[in-house]
Amino acid sequence: MFRHRDSIPKPVRHSLRSSVIDGSAYSVMVGLGETYLPAFVLAIGLGEVIAGLVTTVPMLMGAVLQLISPRVIRHTGSHRRWVVLCAAVQGVAFIPLAIAAWKGYMPAWSVLAVATVYWGTAMAAGPAWNTWMGHLVPMRLRTRFFTNRTRFAQGFVMVGLVIGGVTLHITKLNSEPLLGFVFVFAIACLSRLISSWYLMRQAEPYCEDFVERTVTAGEMAGRFQGSAGALMLYMAGVQVTSQLAAPYFTPFMLQKLEFSYLLYVGMLATSFFSKSMSMIILGRVAEKWGANTLLWIGGLGIVPLAVMWVVSGSPWYLLPTQVLAGACWGAYELATFLLLFETIPNHERTSVLTTFNLVNSAAIVTGSIVGGLILRSFDKSVSAYWMIFALSTVGRALSLLLLRRVQIDRSAPVPMLIRNLTVRASGGSVDRPILTSIDDETRSYSRRDLFADSATSLEAGENGN
After folding, report:
1. Is residue 456 scored above 50 in pLDDT?
2. Contact at 8 Å (CB) between 180 and 171?
3. pTM, full prediction
4. What is the pLDDT of residue 233?
5. Structural domain count of the chain
6. CA pair distance 114, 118, nearest whole angstrom
7. 3 in a domain, yes or no?
8. Is the pLDDT of residue 287 over 90?
9. At residue 424, what are phi and psi to the nearest 5 degrees?
């Protein structure tokens, strides 16, 4: 995996190898686990609105719970202990889901509670994992290491997706649909516990505490009055309007279009794969023409995606639509991350990212609740779905008025690697940047070389790990 292995101390090589195994096992969990939670909600009869909300509401609670992470780390004196604990609890969260699948019933509040534990532990571990990896991975190895680790992770997310889809398809054909979810959630749990074990096997180097400055809410509000504020406002607008529809593509496919689980996972995998592969081109676009140009490409591209589902329910039409969706959302997300983190000093990134996650999650929940209310008001009919798809498209178009105010001029964007939190039916995945891969010292390297690596490596299935 690495050149000049003899120059890397043996404990470091051992830790980096364990990190690759940890990321791969985690990625299997992402492909098998939370990705299929909306389908599980539908299978046990909790309804289409709950199937949508279970993918969004717990994310807000997770963003809130991550605020306790710094305090716990200071109390325990170890980033590794906190990350391992969060990872283990996240894995165990699948046990009640597997039991419920075996019994055939689970109250809606219980599903939401389990999903909240999942997202809470995942997001709470994220900042600590970033700091830990910043101490563990030598600077000269970071780009190559995270690129290779990402490639493994991407592959194993796809493995998890395919195994889950095939399993559910077979058990449904045998008139035992819930038995498939027992297997899926059990393997997801085991995969995350394996990930936890390999997290524990990684060293935690002693070093002087990095001075991470906390940016207060008042200071943050004062900063967001120029282009940076316009960018955040535009991002919030996109999240609210896109989430009117995004959480409800799964119930639309499984309930209204009556897709099989194989076809469903094909839709997921298509957008995910498209988004991953498009990063090769998108990184070069950002380097050559700037992140502002890339943001306009993504911003315009995502506008019609929701309403395109109104045109036809044919898989032969929707599969190419998913290819387009993955590429457009990839352009939007990469551009927003590049512009956002280009303007944030290194010692403030964790603080700002925590606030960003909270605001972003609040916007996601707001949009999904409004969409759910519209569906319920119109009796969850096909026309109700078409209505939220159309409203989402109109909202995204109107958000372009906010995009006109975004003018952050950077000739050379900061190279970064992106980690994926989960796979979604629309847009391929939910992503966050790996802060460890963004370092001020990388500015002295060749930007073309860095983007050649980072553009090929959308971090897949990675959260707090």
Report:
1. no
2. yes
3. 0.85
4. 85
5. 1
6. 6
7. no
8. no
9. -125, 155
Q: Which residues contact 142 (CB under 8 A, 6 or more apart)?
A: 436, 437, 439, 442
CATH of the domain at 254: 1.20.1250.20
Cα dihedral 2→27→332→301 (10° resolution):
120
289 Cβ neighbours under 8 A, 6+ residues apart = none
Q: Does residue 217 form part of some domain?
A: no
Q: For residue 46, is it within any domain?
A: yes
Q: Residue 164 belongs to what domain range?
A: 12-205+223-454
Residue 323 CB: number of other CB atoms within 10 A? 18
Whether residue 23 contacts residue 149, with contact meaning beta carbons closer than 8 Å, is answered with: yes
> Which pLDDT tens digit goes with each residue over 96-112?
999 999 999 999 999 99
Listed residue (239, 246, 231, 232) closest to 395, CA to CA: 239
Gap between the Cα atoms of 190 and 434, Å rounded:
25
For residue 94, is it within any domain?
Answer: yes
Q: 52 Cβ partners below 8 Å, 6+ apart?
A: 38, 247, 248, 250, 251, 368, 371, 372, 375
